[in-house]
Design goal:
The structure holds 2 protein chains of 2 kinds. By secondary structure, chain A is of the alpha+beta class. Helix content of chain A is 48%, strand content 20%. In chain A, strand 1 and strand 2 form a beta hairpin. Chain B has a single domain, classed as RRM (RNA recognition motif) domain (Alpha-Beta Plaits, 2-Layer Sandwich), CATH 3.30.70. Chain B starts with a helix and ends in a 12-residue tail after the last strand. The chains are: A alpha+beta, B alpha+beta. At the A-B interface, helix 2 of A face helix 2 of B.
């Protein structure tokens, strides 16, 4: 096998491969004898057809199959012999094939470019000092209270803004599929005064109830806007006979140890502590991300590099599929969202490019600095994950063996980041 | 008068004919039904530029075929086995 390597771009390798005639004719005759064994031509029993006839009938197929077998094999061999790591699947062109001739073809693959690293040590980055204020903690607590609020009977006796009311009413059923003005009676409906959802469905339905006392009957007239979604209702009006049954208001739980206990903690101080911890770790995580981003920005600025387009393409595919997965996990499809796939692709192009550049630079740095992941570290990581997740240890182990390369790359990146941070000039800012 | 091309309809390539061709230099054809051995021999000589030694012919009975409840019969046809002079070949025969 003769291989001629040229490198027209830093990320592109072209291989000029010539396979010897022996190999080709051996493969071809193998194919023919296989066909002769297996085909039945008219006038002949299976396997009895003369070789010449088979050759004539099946030369195209034999040629195709020979190429399909020999070319990928040759490419793989050529790549591994010359230690070329392709990042995309090789493209084959200029193929010359004749049964009694050497097989010649060219193939081009994209590879990771060699990077001439610029400066990557002593990068100036800003670190925000982690500081959780009391205000932030209190705000969190307020949200928690809001979440565990209960509805209780109101202390006042007439309906006020932002109260809840339980009502019975008689009025049009508003069933879009049937006659919307068929009168229906409903009881014990809970509605919030001024609630946005209710306002959208029945504009101006809740406001007239303000001031009503419990047990009072009120007629409410609703005028539907002209652009209402249901055409049968647009610009019509409807009258509802409403009886207010109960007036309720939201009661926030009191801020005491009982409230903390409800959330599974001993006392209010403990709760504050816990919130403080959470906020701190959250800010730290934010901080780490922002520092990493600053690092990446600097690295990309300092290291001009050429990148193989197929890597960016792969990254875009990855991001797009991730986004789609996210949507479908929310029960949505991109069509429903009115997002076109092309738009999504152009949108995430910059991100993809940035990711690719980051990967390439970090890899180059880790190579130069001999940052590597030892077997022990790998096992440690696996153990950590086993301890953290609910999945069974076997499942995690399977995952780690199946995706070993990916995980090691990730860990290496993590480690390189750490190395860069250790070597960076960090300035604390508020 | 029939022209040579209508006398000789097509070569017959089967296991049997192939082995007779390679071992005994006998070539088999499907021919028109109303022609004589002499006509066949001459036609072969003219068409393929070879020397014919012997011609054997036979009438092959058509097979019965049935389409549902209707029974039919395929037409009979004539087969000719032509022995050529040693060394003469018909090129177009190899591979129908």
């Amino acid at each position: 096998m003769k291989v001629n390597i040229s490198r027209p771009e830093s990320w592109k390798v072209v291989l000029d491969i010539e396979l010897p005639q022996d190999l080709v004719s051996q493969e071809v005759s193998g194919k023919f004898s296989k066909f002769q064994q297996s085909v039945s031509l008219p006038g002949f029993r299976k396997g009895k057809a003369p070789v010449e006839l088979v050759k004539q009938r099946f030369s195209q197929q034999a040629m195709r199959e020979t190429i399909e077998k020999l070319v990928p094999e040759a490419i793989e061999k050529a790549l591994s012999e010359n230690n070329i790591k392709a990042v995309n699947s090789p493209a084959v062109y200029d193929l010359e094939f004749d049964f009694e001739q050497p097989l010649k073809f060219k193939t081009s693959v994209e590879v990771k470019p060699k990077i001439n690293l610029g400066s990557y040590k002593r990068i100036k980055i800003k670190k925000k000092i982690v500081n959780v204020t009391n205000e932030e903690v209190n705000k969190q607590i307020e949200t928690l209270r809001e979440k565990s609020a209960r509805l209780v009977l109101a202390t006042h006796d007439s309906v006020q803004e932002s109260d809840f009311v339980v009502i019975d009413y008689e009025g049009p059923g508003l069933d879009a599929t049937k006659d919307p003005f068929k009168i229906e009676k409903k009881t014990n409906q809970l509605i919030k005064i001024g609630d946005e959802g209710a306002e959208k469905f029945l504009p101006g339905f809740t406001k007239p109830l303000i001031g009503a006392k419990s047990g009072e009957n009120i007629d409410v007239t609703v005028v539907f806007p002209e652009d209402h979604a249901n055409k049968k209702l647009a610009a019509k009006d409807a009258c509802f006979k409403v009886t207010v049954q109960e007036i309720k208001q939201k009661q926030l739980p009191e801020l005491n140890d009982d409230f903390a206990k409800e959330l599974g903690l001993d006392s209010i101080d403990k709760l504050k502590e816990r919130i403080n911890e959470n906020l701190t770790s959250q800010q730290e995580a934010d901080n780490k991300r922002s520092m990493e981003n600053q690092l990446i920005d600097e690295l990309i600025k300092n290291n001009a590099l050429e990148y193989p387009p197929s890597l960016v393409e792969q990254e875009i595919n990855y991001i797009v599929s991730k986004t789609k997965n996210y949507f479908s996990s929310q029960g949505l499809t991109t069509q429903q969202m009115g997002i076109k796939e092309e738009d999504l692709r152009t949108k995430c192009k910059d991100d993809a490019l940035r990711n690719v550049k980051t990967h390439l630079i970090l890899e180059a740095i880790s190579q130069k600095e001999n940052i590597d992941i030892s077997e022990d570290e790998f096992n440690q990581q696996m153990q950590d994950v086993i301890n953290q997740t609910k999945d069974s240890a076997d499942k995690v182990k399977d995952y780690f063996t199946n995706y070993r390369d990916t995980i090691i790359t990730q860990m290496k990146q993590e480690k390189t980041f750490k190395f860069l941070l250790d070597n960076a000039k960090i300035k604390d800012v508020k | 008068m029939q022209v040579d091309q209508t006398i000789i309809k097509k070569p017959l390539v089967t296991e049997r004919s192939t082995s007779q061709r390679t071992l005994e230099n006998k070539y088999t054809f499907k021919v028109a039904r109303n022609v004589s051995k002499i006509q066949i021999g001459k036609a072969i000589e003219r068409l393929f530029n070879v020397k014919v030694l012997k011609v054997h012919t036979m009438t092959v009975k058509g097979k019965k075929r049935r389409m549902g409840r209707y029974e039919g019969i395929r037409p009979d046809w004539k087969k000719a086995i032509v022995t050529l002079k040693k060394g003469d070949t018909i090129k177009s025969f190899e591979g129908a």
